[in-house]
Amino acid sequence: MSWQRFSLRLMLFAFVLWAAGFAVFAIDSLTPPSPPPRCDGIAVLTGGQDRISAAFTLLRDGYGQQLLISGVGSHATLAQLGEPGIYRLSDRITLGRHAITTIGNAMEAAQWAHANALHSVIVVTAGYHIRRALVELRRAAPDVRFTAYAVQPPALRHPATRATAFLLLREYTKLLGAWVGVTRGNPMA
């Protein structure tokens, strides 16, 4: 077999592997969450709709004893997050203000989990973001058990559009980068 044929077959195999991985990723991103197991804490990674609301519901329903909202703006308050009845739980909520990337979220969540002696944490973020978040969280705190709770954002609740496809492709590419350890940017403000 010639070198050119071997190279072509190798490229074709790599493409098929990439496409199969993307298909699994896309299906996983669109799967609604099932109830998580009870854990010590809950960490929600901000940046999309419905994440904070889902995390508050989990906290209120007793799925975790403490809540970290990672990546909150420097001037944001709990009142601005707009969840009714949240004040009675405010002593169990930490606003993490330093993370500006997924890696920063992971570092912030790891520090919070260790500072509060948490051994298990439910992670709330978008379905397209959850796998990459778990990679970074497990890298930052391998001694903590992280459980996924993937929220379906509005963009993924409707029939597929070109924008949805590009979102999924971009996030799949970022996931592949996280798996091989490619990082970029300043993770903490």
Automatic annotation (TrEMBL):
Pfam families: DUF218. Residues 40-173 form the DUF218 domain. This is DUF218 domain-containing protein.
